[in-house]
Amino acid sequence: MWLLLLLGALFWAVLWFLRDRQSLPASDAFVFITGCDSGFGRLLALRLDQRGFRVLASCLTPSGAENLQQMASSRLHTTLLDITDPQSVQRVAKWVETHVREAGLFGLVNNAGVAGIIGPTPWLPWDDFHRVLNVNTLGPIGVTLALLPLLQRARGRVINITSVLGRLAANGGGYCVSKFGLEAFSDSLRRDVASFGVQVSIVEPGFFRTPVTSLENLENTLQACWARLPPATQAHYGEAFLTKCE
């Protein structure tokens, strides 16, 4: 019995090792990535550019787009995109089509996201949930739907960056809710577009050092959330509860 378990664990470890050693082959196909100002999006855009992909990178800020363009080759093109603005999404979808033309879009990486306020649910108003869901769930859905015809043209793939917190609701706030929603969208989309040759995958990062996971930012937003609570609510919870949350 123990021998079978050991062999099974060894087999699983070998498969995991081989999977992690896989690398993406060089290509000149088109890939569109959201959230390239910093973090995973920026690193991925530069890595794919180095491998010869024709990267179409969207940034939220002009400074983010300018900095990325300076570090990349002439193959990489940047544009500004607010994924929560339907007009911005439609404009960028047309921009992408002018680049890919008949080749279509090989890959879409929905990477843009925010952490929002992570704290006790009773402390958070509807607006806090709405902002995070708008960026992390509805935004990627809108971008995907706008670019789906180009993805079908190339029989491409959609990569949605979710989180381990898209499987385990470890804290309050809109972040876990938004990532659960994006995973559900990915599962339903995968089924609906499979017959058209489009693949859908999710990536569930753990805790990496990016602007989204900055402990300082998370603590500052929690403190701001505490400060806006009515005095009676603060007295009910007490400073000790706030310290425990931090």
From TrEMBL:
Gene3D superfamilies: NAD(P)-binding Rossmann-like Domain. InterPro entries: NAD(P)-bd_dom_sf, SDR_fam. GO terms for molecular function: all-trans-retinol dehydrogenase (NAD+) activity. SUPFAM superfamilies: NAD(P)-binding Rossmann-fold domains. The keyword Signal applies. It comes from the Eukaryota. Pfam families: adh_short. The keyword Transferase does not apply. Residues 1-16 form the signal peptide. Keywords: Oxidoreductase, Signal. GO terms for biological process: retinoid metabolic process; steroid metabolic process. Belongs to the short-chain dehydrogenases/reductases (SDR) family. This is 11-cis retinol dehydrogenase. It comes from Marmota monax (Woodchuck).
